[in-house]
Design a protein that fits this description.
Elements (H helix, E strand, L loop, with lengths): L12 H9 L4 H13 L3 H10 L4 E2 H8 L3 H13 L3 E6 L2 E6 L2 H14 L2
Antiparallel strand pairs: 1-3, 2-3
Helix pairs in contact: 4-5
Protein backbone atom coordinates (compact mmCIF):
# COMPACT_ATOMS: atom_id res chain seq x y z
CA UNK A 1 0.00 0.00 0.00
CA UNK A 2 1.32 3.45 -0.91
CA UNK A 3 2.16 5.85 1.90
CA UNK A 4 0.11 8.48 0.05
CA UNK A 5 -3.20 6.65 0.16
CA UNK A 6 -5.65 5.90 2.94
CA UNK A 7 -5.68 2.40 4.37
CA UNK A 8 -9.37 2.83 5.09
CA UNK A 9 -11.90 4.92 3.25
CA UNK A 10 -13.38 7.40 5.72
CA UNK A 11 -14.85 10.74 4.62
CA UNK A 12 -14.83 13.53 7.20
CA UNK A 13 -17.62 15.62 5.70
CA UNK A 14 -17.39 18.57 8.12
CA UNK A 15 -13.64 18.79 7.69
CA UNK A 16 -13.94 18.60 3.90
CA UNK A 17 -16.56 21.38 3.86
CA UNK A 18 -14.38 23.59 6.05
CA UNK A 19 -11.28 23.05 3.94
CA UNK A 20 -13.17 23.64 0.67
CA UNK A 21 -14.63 26.85 2.08
CA UNK A 22 -11.11 28.14 2.83
CA UNK A 23 -9.46 27.23 -0.47
CA UNK A 24 -8.02 30.12 -2.48
CA UNK A 25 -10.20 31.59 -5.17
CA UNK A 26 -8.85 31.36 -8.74
CA UNK A 27 -7.58 34.96 -8.81
CA UNK A 28 -5.60 34.62 -5.57
CA UNK A 29 -4.40 31.16 -6.56
CA UNK A 30 -2.96 32.57 -9.79
CA UNK A 31 -1.23 35.43 -7.94
CA UNK A 32 0.38 33.07 -5.43
CA UNK A 33 1.44 30.75 -8.25
CA UNK A 34 3.09 33.65 -10.10
CA UNK A 35 5.03 34.60 -6.97
CA UNK A 36 6.36 31.07 -6.52
CA UNK A 37 7.27 30.87 -10.21
CA UNK A 38 9.17 34.15 -9.89
CA UNK A 39 11.13 33.03 -6.85
CA UNK A 40 11.91 29.59 -8.25
CA UNK A 41 14.94 30.95 -10.11
CA UNK A 42 18.27 30.89 -8.20
CA UNK A 43 19.39 34.26 -9.60
CA UNK A 44 16.18 35.95 -8.47
CA UNK A 45 16.59 34.36 -5.03
CA UNK A 46 20.10 35.82 -4.84
CA UNK A 47 18.75 39.25 -5.80
CA UNK A 48 16.04 39.08 -3.16
CA UNK A 49 18.54 38.03 -0.49
CA UNK A 50 20.82 40.92 -1.53
CA UNK A 51 17.88 43.32 -1.21
CA UNK A 52 16.97 41.89 2.19
CA UNK A 53 19.39 44.18 3.96
CA UNK A 54 20.05 47.03 1.51
CA UNK A 55 18.39 49.09 -1.16
CA UNK A 56 20.52 48.61 -4.30
CA UNK A 57 20.73 49.82 -7.88
CA UNK A 58 21.20 47.54 -10.89
CA UNK A 59 24.93 48.23 -11.07
CA UNK A 60 25.38 47.32 -7.37
CA UNK A 61 23.53 44.04 -7.86
CA UNK A 62 25.47 43.24 -11.04
CA UNK A 63 28.76 43.60 -9.14
CA UNK A 64 27.49 41.56 -6.18
CA UNK A 65 26.30 38.70 -8.42
CA UNK A 66 29.01 39.10 -11.10
CA UNK A 67 26.42 39.39 -13.87
CA UNK A 68 25.67 41.93 -16.56
CA UNK A 69 23.40 44.85 -15.78
CA UNK A 70 21.13 43.71 -18.60
CA UNK A 71 20.69 40.27 -17.02
CA UNK A 72 20.01 41.81 -13.61
CA UNK A 73 17.55 44.29 -15.08
CA UNK A 74 15.62 41.44 -16.72
CA UNK A 75 15.41 39.53 -13.43
CA UNK A 76 14.35 42.65 -11.53
CA UNK A 77 11.49 43.20 -13.99
CA UNK A 78 10.18 39.70 -13.25
CA UNK A 79 10.35 40.40 -9.50
CA UNK A 80 8.72 43.81 -9.90
CA UNK A 81 5.90 42.38 -12.05
CA UNK A 82 4.80 40.16 -9.14
CA UNK A 83 5.25 42.94 -6.56
CA UNK A 84 8.21 41.39 -4.76
CA UNK A 85 10.39 44.48 -5.27
CA UNK A 86 9.74 48.21 -5.45
CA UNK A 87 11.75 51.00 -6.98
CA UNK A 88 12.75 54.50 -6.00
CA UNK A 89 14.19 56.87 -8.56
CA UNK A 90 16.98 59.26 -7.63
CA UNK A 91 18.09 61.29 -10.63
CA UNK A 92 18.65 58.78 -13.40
CA UNK A 93 19.26 55.89 -11.02
CA UNK A 94 16.59 53.45 -9.85
CA UNK A 95 17.08 51.83 -6.48
CA UNK A 96 15.42 48.52 -5.70
CA UNK A 97 14.22 47.17 -2.36
CA UNK A 98 11.95 44.42 -1.13
CA UNK A 99 8.32 45.39 -1.61
CA UNK A 100 7.34 44.97 2.03
CA UNK A 101 7.94 43.10 5.26
CA UNK A 102 6.05 40.06 3.94
CA UNK A 103 8.73 39.42 1.32
CA UNK A 104 11.43 39.78 3.96
CA UNK A 105 9.59 37.33 6.22
CA UNK A 106 9.04 34.85 3.39
CA UNK A 107 12.76 34.66 2.72
CA UNK A 108 13.80 34.67 6.36
CA UNK A 109 11.47 31.73 7.00
CA UNK A 110 12.68 29.87 3.90
CA UNK A 111 16.28 30.34 5.05
CA UNK A 112 15.41 29.17 8.56
CA UNK A 113 13.60 26.14 7.13
CA UNK A 114 16.56 24.95 5.05
CA UNK A 115 18.92 25.42 8.00
CA UNK A 116 16.89 23.36 10.50
Amino acid sequence: MSTYTCDTFCILEDTIKEVKKNLLNEHDLEKVSRIFKAISDPTRIKILFALKSHELCVCDISVILDMTQSAISHQLKVLKDVDLVRTRKEGKTRFYKLADEHVHTLFSQAFDHVNE
